[in-house]
From TrEMBL:
<dbReference type="InterPro" id="IPR000572">
    <property type="entry name" value="OxRdtase_Mopterin-bd_dom"/>
</dbReference>
<dbReference type="InterPro" id="IPR036374">
    <property type="entry name" value="OxRdtase_Mopterin-bd_sf"/>
</dbReference>
<protein>
    <submittedName>
        <fullName>Sulfite oxidase-like oxidoreductase</fullName>
    </submittedName>
</protein>
<dbReference type="Pfam" id="PF00174">
    <property type="entry name" value="Oxidored_molyb"/>
</dbReference>
<feature type="domain" description="Oxidoreductase molybdopterin-binding">
    <location>
        <begin position="31"/>
        <end position="176"/>
    </location>
</feature>
Length: 196
């Protein structure tokens, strides 16, 4: 059985250049998969923001929404119409006090993974913290108990196992960005690697 296929004419307009459609939902992870208990899960913010810490219950008390979004991996596969349940980034941002000079965010995760994103790309109402996919709790392999989802850029920016945000005035590079990946990762421009 083929795991990937070329998009048909109708789907083609939704699939960025160089991508194939995945029939399943592939799992790509560098290093070990963290196993995180929601009872001890903690989410922190620091940097150019009033430092704060949030529990799982704090997040679950925020408005929850259903999202349907296409998902594009830099390794050249896409999955259309992924159905998530989560919390809008903009709803979370209303809880914290970010300084006006903030222009960049570093996403921090259980397991030590980091990835950078501009504030302009991060603080959008279509971005969300996901805790379910296709109505099921997000598995550890897919980033559970919670991951960020940023549909308009490549999925390595949709950090799995997210547990913190560092707010910055200037850009710092995260794990893959320090290892040759593009600092932004716009799929339609094929911003896969630095210099592309």
């Amino acid at each position: 059985m083929k795991f990937f296929q070329k998009p048909d004419k109708q789907e083609g307009e939704r699939v960025p250049p160089g991508q194939h459609l995945a029939k399943g939902f592939p799992v790509l992870t560098y290093g070990e998969t963290p196993q995180v208990n929601i009872e001890t899960w903690e989410f922190r913010v620091w940097g150019l923001v009033k430092p704060a810490s949030f529990t799982w219950s704090d997040f679950m008390s925020l408005p929850q929404h259903e999202f349907t979004a296409d998902f594009h991996c830099v390794t050249r596969w896409s999955k259309l119409d992924v159905k998530w349940t989560g919390i809008k980034v903009t709803d979370f941002m209303s809880l914290i006090d970010v300084e006006p000079q903030v222009a960049h965010v570093m996403e921090h995760c259980y397991g030590g993974y980091t990835t950078n994103i501009s504030m302009a790309d991060f603080a959008r109402s279509e971005n969300f913290f996901a805790f379910k996919v296709f109505s099921e709790p997000l598995s550890a392999e897919h980033g559970g108990p919670m991951r960020l989802v940023v549909p308009h850029i490549y999925a390595w920016k949709s950090a799995k196992w997210i547990n913190g945000l560092e707010f910055l005035e200037k850009e710092k590079l995260g794990f893959w960005e320090r290892n040759g990946y593009h600092s932004r990762g716009e799929p339609w421009a094929e911003e896969r690697y630095s210099g592309s």
